[in-house]
Amino acid sequence: MSGTISSTLQTGHVGLNVTDLARSTAFYRRVLGLELVAEGTDPEHRYAFLGRDGRPVLTLWQQSEGAFATAAPGLHHLSFQVDSLDEVRAAEALLRELGATFAYDGVVPHGEGAASGGIFFTDPDGIRLEIYTPAGVDETGAEAPTASAPTCGFF
């Protein structure tokens, strides 16, 4: 298997720089239902590992200032898949309660006529996020925000 990566390759966890660890930890735990797996409380090296069943999914590092720069090279957005449209709508209701900022009003398809789609919003630091379902959005009658491009690419 010279020159290639194993076929077992998969995403391990995603690490994000945040400005307020406590605020971001509370946000991601509530919205994504993640548990605190590990944390660092040294004032110079604060972090939180959030995950499921003891396995980190998202790591938060308090080592930045300002807001997420959408025009800079790097992370575009994080996308989280759920099984049903009802789960997307429940996440939307929770995010509205929390005062999250949405890119579009309500659940929208990934493209015109697409069965998949979801909600597009930002975390407390302005990092772009998506919660979507692979099917059922086409039955809502919602229109894609941009007919000529994927919804998740231009928000």
Automatic annotation (TrEMBL):
CDD domains: VOC
UniProt keywords, alphabetically: Metal-binding
Sequence intervals crossing the membrane: none
Ranges where the VOC domain occurs: 10-134
Keyword Glycosyltransferase listed: no
Keyword Metal-binding among record annotations: yes
PANTHER family membership: GLYOXALASE_BLEOMYCIN RESISTANCE PROTEIN_DIOXYGENASE, LYASE, PUTATIVE-RELATED-RELATED
Protein name: VOC family protein
Record organism: Kitasatospora purpeofusca
